[in-house]
Amino acid sequence: MKFQALFLAALVSTGLAAPTPETAPKFAPVYTLRLSSRTATLDGKYLSTSNSTLGIFSKPSSSVKFYAVKNPQTGLSELHTYPRSASDNTLALVGTNGLLDLSSLPNPAQVTVPKGTVVDWQSFHLSEADEEAGALGYAAGKEGSWVAFPATSGKGEWTVKWKEGSAITIQNYIPVKVVYELVTSF
Predict the structure, then answer these.
(1) Do the domain assignments include residue 21?
(2) Which domain holds residue 67?
(3) Average pLDDT of 101-111?
(4) Nearest CA-CA partner of 164 in 114, 100, 104
(5) What is the domain-level CATH number for residue 108?
(6) Residue 6: what are its φ and ψ, rounded to 5°?
(7) Closest Cα partner for 93 from 81, 105, 85?
(8) Is 152 part of any domain?
(9) Tens digits of per-residue pLDDT, 30-67?
(10) pTM for this one?
(11) Is residue 61 part of a domain?
């Protein structure tokens, strides 16, 4: 027994019994979202949140940051907000009748919604135009596009939505592209 204790003490003192360090996990790249539009007041503006809705808002807040978790079976991604939080906020599309708000939801799998309401956080497509930037798409099977609607505040604020081709709305929206960019500093 004494011999084992002495042997272990000798190993520890030489560093041979120290646990081997694990290699640091590779972290997914972190991205931010901005609009690309023919309308100068929207072009190049970064998306932020007001309550849970993403858009362009007058009260300054930091831009939305996310990392993508790709499903190897579907090739589509979930977009989890960064920094990580206990509530695991995820970007999602929420709405009815083909008009879906781009939102940030805590634990979307546990959200209960009325019948006919869409909550989809697993069908985003990140175009692979290049490694640092590209277009954000939605691949839930119905043709559509990103649009910006004036927010109800009327202060030059805009909310971003996915409008399916079959959605019927009044013509007060502006077609936009939602572009993701690699965040290089925090």
Answers:
(1) no
(2) 28-182
(3) 92
(4) 100
(5) 2.80.10
(6) -65, -40
(7) 105
(8) yes
(9) 999 999 999 999 999 999 999 899 999 988 678 999 99
(10) 0.80
(11) yes
Number of domains in the chain: 1
- Mean pLDDT of the 20-36 span: 68
Q: Spell out the SS3 assignment of the chain.
A: CHHHHHHHHHHHHHCCCCCCCCCCCCCCCCEEEEEECCCCCCCCCECEEECCEEEECCCCCCCCEEEEEECCCCCCEEEEECCCCCCCEEEEEEEECCEEEEEEEECHHHCCCCCCCEEECCCEEECCCCCCEEEEEECCCCCEEEEEEECCCCCCCEEEEEEECCCCCCCCCEECEEEEEECCCC
Residue 80 or 27, more confident? 80
* In contact, 77 and 126? CB cutoff 8 Å: yes
Mean pLDDT in residue range 120-141: 82
Separation CA 56–CA 159 (nearest Å): 6
Q: Is pLDDT above 50 for 141? A: yes
Please state, in angstroms and as integers, the Cα–Cα distance from residue 117 to each residue in 12, 100, 114, following that order.
Answer: 61, 9, 6
Amino acid sitting at position 65:
K
122 part of a folded domain:
yes
